[in-house]
Design a protein that fits this description.
Elements (H helix, E strand, L loop, with lengths): L5 E6 L1 H4 L9 H16 L3 E6 L2 H6 L11 H25 L3 E7 L1 H5 L1 H16 L2 E7 L13 H11 L4 E6 L4 E2 L10 E2 L1 E2 L20 H13 L3 E6 L7 H4 L6 E3 L8 H7 L6 E5 L1 H7 L6 E2 L3 E5 L7 E5 L5 E6 L4 H9 L5 H5 L6 E3 L4 E3 L11 H11 L1
Parallel strand pairs: 1-2, 1-5, 2-4, 3-4, 5-9, 8-10, 11-14
Antiparallel strand pairs: 6-7, 9-10, 11-13, 12-16, 14-15, 15-17
Helix pairs in contact: 2-4, 7-8
């Protein structure tokens, strides 16, 4: 595994694709690859998470960003990906380095074994001085099984590669305390906690799938992994190194100093919700010791259809997310166990169990630095009914 510091760089669609012509912006791509060449000379690894395949393929399938449906975008991704990779390959060849394509789906991040396999592949490429170019496999993904935006995908790549820096290049120069078009909007140069800024981050690019909200979510994931995140405008002579060197304007999200293990970080940083359970507040207090499992008798309600090994979100009775952990049973089994707490497990399931729905070693109690997920509507409505 490479000992050189790693930089993960996320490139927005609007930087790679001409907004009107939907063709590659070769000028930007040349500046980017030249800067990567300089960084490699300084002993740094670079992983690119590049959007742009869908945008570059839209014209080929006769669609526009406004008219394209899901199947149109899937077809456009199939057409645009060879254009995108060929442009990177040709420019990289000028600077004497090779590229490799890695297409991922949600399951490659949410399944731990596939996560580790992907991690090993990326590190093997970097060990061979090959630049991995990562993207979601838009050709085969649907809304139910997709990451949905390359900001969070890139943050997960930063987590899996133990990156030191995570750079998000976009159309703005960083984060503002409100929408930058509003009068009196103030630039935010440095952030410890992204939570206070989430309300001011609505909207997304016409060409892209993620706005500033997804960038803050991505920054939070990277912070949890001990990676410093930067959001900056992509149009610069040295788009990456000028950020790392601190020679131009950007917003920096400071890495958290107290790091979780790779296992706990993988559990805590989710891209989609598999399922939820609600427990009593006194159980939450006991979970904070780090030695208490979530037991069958603790479960007050359950939501979602999931399998053994999926990560569950644990809520208190007020609907606040308090922990995340690996399910030891399927949703159907948990419903049977929790709904019949006085009946022996062997009678219910056909075999003996300890009754631990989530083992202590597979549980992460969320701290203030984590972005919490809102409870599903079914859980929230159930809690409101009980309060009434």
């Amino acid at each position: 595994m490479s000992e050189h510091p790693t930089i993960v760089v996320k490139i927005g669609s609007s930087l790679v694709a001409n907004r009107d012509l939907l063709t590659p912006r070769f000028g930007f791509m040349h500046r980017l690859m030249e800067d990567i060449f300089r960084l490699r000379q300084r002993g740094m690894n670079v992983v690119l998470c590049s959007s742009g395949a869908v945008a570059l393929g839209l014209r080929m399938v006769g669609e526009t960003p406004g008219s394209a449906g899901v199947s149109d975008k899937q077809a456009a991704a199939a057409c645009g990906m060879p254009l995108l990779l060929n442009a990177y390959r040709q420019i990289g060849h000028e600077y004497g380095f090779n590229i490799a394509q890695i297409l991922l789906t949600l399951g490659d991040f949410e399944d731990h074994r596939r996560f580790l396999n992907t991690r090993n592949t990326v590190h093997r490429l970097m060990d061979s001085d090959i630049i991995p170019i990562v993207n979601e496999n838009d050709t085969i993904t649907t809304e139910e099984i997709r990451v949905g935006d390359n900001d969070r995908l890139a943050a997960k790549v930063a987590q899996m590669t133990d990156a030191k820096h995570f750079v998000i290049l976009t159309e703005v120069d960083g984060l503002y305390d409100r929408h930058p078009d509003e009068e009196g909007a103030q630039f935010v140069p440095e952030v410890d906690d992204v939570t206070p800024y989430m309300a001011a981050t609505q909207g997304k690019s016409e060409l892209g799938t993620g706005g500033m909200a997804t960038k803050l979510m991505a920054a939070n994931m990277a912070q949890e992994a001990g990676c410093t995140t930067y959001i900056a405008h992509g149009e610069a002579d040295r788009p990456i190194s000028s950020i790392i060197d601190g020679s131009r304007r950007f917003t920096r999200f400071k890495a958290h100093k107290t790091l979780q293990s790779g296992w706990k970080s993988w559990i805590a940083n989710r891209l989609q919700m598999a399922g939820t359970v609600v427990v009593e507040d006194d159980v939450i207090a006991q979970l904070k010791t780090g030695e208490r499992a979530v037991l069958r008798e603790d479960i007050q309600s359950i939501d979602g259809d999931f399998t053994r090994g999926d990560v569950l979100h644990v809520y208190d009775r007020s609907g606040t997310e308090r922990a995340r952990g690996l399910a030891d049973f399927t949703s159907e089994e948990i419903r049977v166990l929790a709904g019949n707490p006085d009946i022996d497990s062997e009678q219910l399931l056909g075999y003996k169990i300890k009754g631990e729905i989530i083992r202590a070693k597979n549980l992460v109690v969320l701290e203030g630095r984590h972005l919490r997920w809102d409870a599903p509507e079914s859980v929230a409505s159930e809690q409101k009914t009980e309060e009434a």
